[in-house]
Each structure stands twice: as structure tokens, then as C-alpha cells.
Amino acid sequence: MTVPQYGQPAQQQSSLSFTEGFLLGQLSVVILIGAFIKFFIFGDPPSPETTASTRALARHNQENAHRRSFSINSSPASASKSDVRIPSSNILRHPPHLTTPVILSKTYYNVNAHQPESLDWFNVLIAQTIAQFRTDAHQDEAILTSLTNVLNGPQKPDFLSSIKVTEISLGEDFPIFSNCHVHPVDDGSTGPDGARLQARMDVDLSDLITLGVETKIILNWPKPLTAILPVALAVSIVRFSGTLSISFLPSASHPAPSSNAGNSVPPQQPLSTTPTSLAFSFLPDYRLDISVRSLVGSRSRLQDIPKIAQMVENRLHAWIDERCVEPRVQQVVLPSLWPRKKNTRGPPSEEDDCVGLRPTETMRDVREEARREVEEERRREREHREREAAASFAEGLRWRSRVEGSGYEMPGAMPM
Q: Which residues, 6 or more positions from 399, have their beta carbon under 8 angstroms from its beta carbon?
């Protein structure tokens, strides 16, 4: 007579449910990893038209918010306080007060009826300047040294090794400026002289400006130098188009800050004068098309990952927006345009012969100074390369000793 075993079906059912749960959990993890790789790493980026329209809308909303806040915070009282008049002299005759309408009438420029200009002469001057810059960059390799120092500066993250510049292409074409017209600026800064004038022009550049770098991503967790992943990246600017705004900011005089805050009767404060500067910026509807080529890994290499290209493009757009896209502007201080003897070039005059100045001696001094600067720059570059080679050699020795001591090779490490 056999006794029925009541506990056997319950054990089979519990083991079956555990197996089903384990398989279901593994399957869900695999699905999540596959979805992450497909949509996050290898997902198709949005089209350039969609990305450009989205960025333009965001910049337009930011500009409107800035204008609203500026109009609320500004007041006529603050504008009148900043207007400091310098007392006139009895010897120097002051010209009549010139306002913006007077300047426009004297130059025969009607902002409402004047036709846009082509700026062909300006394009030729800019092209000559850029061509000379490219020639100078290829001769002394100053741009290579400057870029290497900037990329390996203090802002470089700790998880990156030394960054090496592998490719630099300054392009072959030139920007084309067109459709220029002058109009008053509507930014709430209208003073007693009238609205500030601003020149707006369209700029279009279709070229291939490339910067390629190589580096290594160092994984320092859970231990230092756990793994090293080589990364190669090349970014190319294919086209840039937008609207450029240029205006002059005249010099202004205001009282210098005083440290005698506790005195009831402040002394006579000297006037501090800000120099005349040139302000330029781009409208938020600009368009920047770039091409990103990437190569990740040493043995099993991943080429042209879309997510890396999207991250680089967003970072480059953010860098431009933070510096020279309205409402932000870039100011360049203009030098003095008053004629000076030291800036004169050409054949010697009789005055130079009388005082004993010889152009050959002056040119000899200039060449000697330029030669010393070039030698100093080469010496600094040679010392930088020696330090970089020593650091790379020490890093290779530490990694080789770690691999030989452990007896295994981490995945993604550089082959020995």
C-alpha cells in the first residue's frame, strides 16, 4: 500500500514559478538594453530643418523675455543719471550737438527708403584678411600650438588623457555679406541723441572647416586606470548662414567708484571714460550645419555614432548662443584712429633724415624682435612635447605593470 505524497505537486509548482520569473526578468533586462542601444545610441537624429526651427523658436522666446524684463527694469530717471556732461572749455570750440536724425540727414541716408547694399567691396577685404590668416597659420603652425594648449588646459576633464590634434582644415571659401541696411535699434536704450543706429547684413558661408582630435577615456572606478577607451572625433562646419548686427558704442564718461562711503560730503570724483567699441551679434534665426565623424574603441570599433554627433552639435550651438547671439553681444574695443608717427609706413621723409632715423635700422630691429619671438615659441612648444611624451611613457609603464601583474586584459584596453 503506497502513501500519496501531498508535498510533491507544491514543490514542482514553486520551482516552475521561480524558473518562469527568472526567465521573465532576464528577458525584460535584455529588452531594456536593446531598446536603450537602438533608440539612445543608434537612434536617428532629427532632421536639420526640425532642429533649426526648434532652436530658433527657443531663442526667439528668450529674446522676448529679455526685452520684457529690460523694459520693466529701465526707467527715464536711470537714463538721466547716467548722462554726465563734461564742462566745456573756452579754448576748444565744441561742434553743434549731433543727434541720430542729424547724422542721417547729413549723410543722405533714409532708413525707410534706402535700398539694401550688396557689400561687394567689403567681401573682397574680408577675403583678403582671411586668406592672409590662413597663410600665416600654415607657416609657423601657431594655430596648432594654440589649439593644443587650449584643449589641454585646466578645463579638461579628469577622465580624459592628453588631447592630440590630428586634423585642421581652415577651408578654402570665404563668407559672403549682402543685403545690408541701417536702422534704429529698438532695445529701450533711446537717449537724448536719439536711437542708436545698427547695421544688419546677411552672411552666408559654405565651406569645410574641420578640427580632428584623438584622446582616451580613462575609467577610474572602482580603481584608477580600470579601463582605457580610445576615441577619435572630427567636427566639420559645412555651412553657416544668419543675420549679423553691427553697431558702434560711443565712449561714455561716468564718475569713478569712490571708497569714501562713510563721508557725508563726497569729494570731487574723477571721471572714468569707457573707450569706443564695436558690438556685433547674430539674430536667433541663424543656421549652422555641421558634420561629425566619430570612432570609438581599439579592437571592436564603433563608427559615426548618431548620439555623439547630436551631443557635439548641441554643445556647439550652446557655445555660440552664450557668446554672440542676441540679446548677448560681443564688444571689441576700437584703437585710436588719430594719425601717429609710429604707425606711418612708406618712404622716409626729410624729418626722418634730419633726426637720423633710417628705415633699414627700424626694419632690422623689427626682424630681430620677430625672430626672438619665434624662437621663444618654438622652445615652449618643444618643452611641452617633451613633458607630454614623458607623461605618456609613465602612463604606459603603469598600465603594463598592472596588466602583467593581474594576468588578464580588460576589454576595451589598448593592445600591447
A: 225, 228, 413, 414
